[in-house]
Amino acid sequence: MKLTPPDPDEVEVSLFGPGFGECVLVHLGNQEWLIVDSCKDQRSTRQPALTYLAEMGLEASAAVRVVLVSHWHDDHVRGISEVVAECITAEFWVSSALRSEELLLMSGLYGSDRASKHNPFQEFYWVMERLRIRAMGRQRLPLINLATESRVLWHRPATRSAPEAEIIAFSPSSVSDYVARQAIANLLPEAEESPHSVQAPQPNDAAVVLSVRLGDITLLLGSDLEVTPDPATGWTAIVGKASSLTKDQRATLFKVPHHGSQNAHHDAVWTEMLVESPWAVLTPFRRGKTPLPRDSDARRIRQMTNRGYITAATKAPTQPRRPRAVDLAVRQAVRKIYDPEGQSGHIRVRGSSFEVDPDKWKVELRPPARSL
After folding, report:
1. Is pTM, for the whole model, over 0.70?
2. Are 272 and 243 in contact (CB under 8 A)?
3. Is residue 1 part of a domain?
4. What angle separates helix 174-186 from helix 101-110, to the nearest 10 degrees?
5. Helix, coil or strand: residue 134
6. Residue 346 is assigned to a structural domain of this protein
7. Which residues of 251-275 are buried (b: 16+ CB within 10 A; e: fewer)?
8. What is the count of structural domains for the chain?
9. Which structural domain, as residue segments, surrounds residue 110?
10. Fewer CB under 10 Å: which end of the chain, C or N?
11. pLDDT, tens digit (0-9, with 9 covering 90-100), for 252-275
């Protein structure tokens, strides 16, 4: 993978992900960038999108125009406060469901507690602190911008060097927003509870799906949005409006939602919103009883497209064999050594902003990324 920036009129989507976490980086043309969600490379502890921009000789402080948190799950927000701290000129967007008094209250009460690595409010707390520092002495946009269904988050008119670009939120719907806010309110702990006993909000139904348009190209970033029984929420609410899309408005690339899980699959997304055999990229999720994607999920995606890629294998990497004496010394020194997530893989897809045909695009992989 050559570490050269894309051309001003070139589309690039980079997806980073170890076995837990994901981050999407999109070139909006003219060396302006979008970052969606965040993860950390377990081995380097670095935020991979920021590392990659620096490797190309770009300064995130000037290049990143929009930072968005699609929903507040740990595998999508690790390191997001670092992103906000470095991308000082970027607008910060979250799902409208996250702008609740209860979440802000819990973050204020418990976010500064560093006793636990699994404090669900810590990242949000530090994001708020960094945004407050940035806004000191300024009269400008709100600290947090709210992404809702059909809202245009960012727009740039065409220039001499780059085509028109636009970012539109396809979710959450008003019903999803209301349901998620109620769920967050119910999480408000009693005064005697510690932050370690408070569960993080579970707003998958209010995750932000994005449509990114650059010139003739459309990208569909699916976050972790799921299919729900309620036609006013989840993917069903989105595809209900997709029948009006013409073929030239369909997406050439799809960030597959929820690690390829069956509960996030909707046939109409593939038949009504995407070109035939689109680029499909996703990250694995190795935690829990059932790692994702399952073998059946991978087969289903391969039936939809022959251009499926994943940032790392679903199964955790095996540990390298050590000499017996070294292994014995290590076991005597520590109780357990493991690398459940491993190195963050990188999928990079590039193409002309005027070329809708996926055949004309190019994919490059940085291990452990691989074909699905």
Report:
1. yes
2. yes
3. no
4. 40
5. helix
6. yes
7. bbbbbbbbbbbeebbbeebbebbbb
8. 1
9. 10-371
10. N
11. 999 999 999 999 999 999 999 999
